[in-house]
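Q: what sequence does this backbone want?
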C-alpha cells in the first residue's frame, strides 16, 4: 500500500480533531437547551421554575417551581430562582405590583418623592424626596413622582418667608413711614408717623430729665 502524502496526512488529522470537537456532548446545544457541567445538553425549565436535577439518558430535566420570595422570568438552566426586589418605604418606595413566580416586584414612589432610576419592567429602584424651596424663593414647578420640585428666586420688590409664594412688598400709607427696607426674605416694615413723633418726644423728655439730674448732683442748691 502506498503511503499518503504528508500534507494529506495532516489534513486528515485536523479533520478528525474537528469532528471529535463538534460532535462531542454539549458542544452545540439547541436554543431551548442548556449545557450541564458534564457537557450534556438538557431541555431548559420554563418561566416560574428552575432546575432541580439535570437530564439523564433515561429522563428529561426535572424542574421545580420557584420558592416564595423568588421568581424566574425566562427559560433557564439555573439551579435557583432570582430573589424578589424589595420596595423600602424609608427609601421612598412602595409596592405597585407584587412579586410572582414569573415576575419581579414593581415599585413606585411615595407622595413627596420622585423616581431617580426607572426601568420599564421593574419600575422605580431609587427615589429621592422633593426638595423644599428656601426663604427668598418660590415654587416654580411642583414636584411629581417623576421630576423634582423646581424653585426660582423672588423678583425685586417681592419676598417669601417659607419658599412657597412670593408676596409683593408692603407700601407704607401716608400716615406711616418706612422704618425697615424689604428684601427677598422679609417685607418692608412700616410704623405710624404719630407713634414715631410720640416716641421721639418721650426720648427727648427722658434725655432732659437725665441731664437735669446730673446738673443738680454736681451743683446742688
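A:
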Amino acid at each position: 500500500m502506498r503511503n499518503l502524502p504528508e500534507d494529506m496526512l495532516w489534513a486528515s488529522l485536523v479533520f478528525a480533531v474537528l469532528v471529535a470537537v463538534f460532535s462531542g456532548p454539549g458542544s452545540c446545544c439547541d436554543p431551548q437547551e442548556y449545557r450541564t457541567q458534564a457537557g450534556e445538553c438538557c431541555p431548559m425549565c420554563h418561566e416560574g421554575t428552575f432546575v432541580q436535577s439535570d437530564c439523564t439518558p433515561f429522563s428529561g430535566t426535572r424542574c421545580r417551581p420557584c420558592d416564595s420570595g423568588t421568581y424566574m422570568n425566562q427559560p433557564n438552566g439555573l439551579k435557583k430562582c432570582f430573589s424578589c426586589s424589595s420596595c423600602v418605604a424609608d427609601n421612598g418606595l412602595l409596592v405597585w405590583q407584587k412579586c410572582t413566580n414569573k415576575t419581579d416586584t414593581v415599585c413606585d414612589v411615595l407622595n413627596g418623592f420622585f423616581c431617580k432610576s426607572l426601568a420599564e419592567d421593574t419600575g422605580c429602584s431609587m427615589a429621592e424626596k422633593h426638595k423644599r424651596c428656601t426663604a427668598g424663593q418660590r415654587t416654580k414647578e411642583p414636584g411629581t413622582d417623576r421630576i423634582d420640585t423646581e424653585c426660582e428666586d423672588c423678583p425685586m420688590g417681592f419676598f417669601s418667608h417659607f419658599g412657597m409664594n412670593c408676596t409683593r412688598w408692603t407700601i407704607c400709607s401716608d400716615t406711616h413711614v418706612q422704618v425697615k427696607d424689604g428684601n427677598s426674605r422679609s417685607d418692608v416694615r412700616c410704623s405710624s408717623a404719630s407713634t414715631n413723633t410720640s416716641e421721639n418726644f418721650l426720648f427727648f423728655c427722658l434725655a432732659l430729665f437725665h441731664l437735669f439730674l446730673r446738673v443738680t448732683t454736681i451743683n446742688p442748691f
